[in-house]
Amino acid sequence: MAYTTTPHHAHARLKHKIMDPGFPCVAARSVINRKTYRLSSYGALGSSEAALAICHDLYEFSHELPPGQAQFTSFFAMFDGPLEQLTELEFEALLWRQLQLIHEVDARHFKWDATVSKDPDDPKFSFSVGGRAFFVVGLHQGASRLARKMAQPCLVFNPHDQFETLRAEGGYERLQQVIRQREMAYQGSVNPVLTNFGQQAESRQYSGRLVPSQWKCPFKQSFSNHDE
To answer: Which of 76, 120, 132, 145 could form a disulfide with 39 if both were Cys (CB 3.0 to 4.6 A apart)?
Structure first.
């Protein structure tokens, strides 16, 4: 089913979903409650035009944030299309096309965040924009996990350092436990794609599809004049 939408309606739908009492991700609920997030709307997922705009907006978003803060923050990139229901494979392909295009813009100006790996198959990998690492969460209408279902495509960029700060303070494992308990109540099972950082490449989690063990991430590192 296709939906017509406006930025206002997209924002309202997102808030309504996340603030549902049963929604499992308490970190997402925190950013909505505390208003520690930014949301912008773009054209089609997987487009060069969206890549340029997202880079600009993520640079601004990062500039506002002190590194290493424990308070959760997120950047929501909502897309006007495609509005027809995508399969998980179709969404995955568009997600990685969009991230590839973002990286190709970003590599002209910034180095990869040195605290994480550039290799998408490395357990220490995290996506980097503006020299800052982000954990990316994809939402779309055809997602098999209820927490990932959205009427229109959305990519959520979560600063990686906030999770490392929480881990150093001893709160990360407790957060994981709470989310997994809520996931059980929300859908009757724990999301099988979720792992701890450093155990398996987080690239396998971005689209939300349960990828097979032999899956290879399509992302390619671009040459940058800033790289040594």
So the answer is: 76
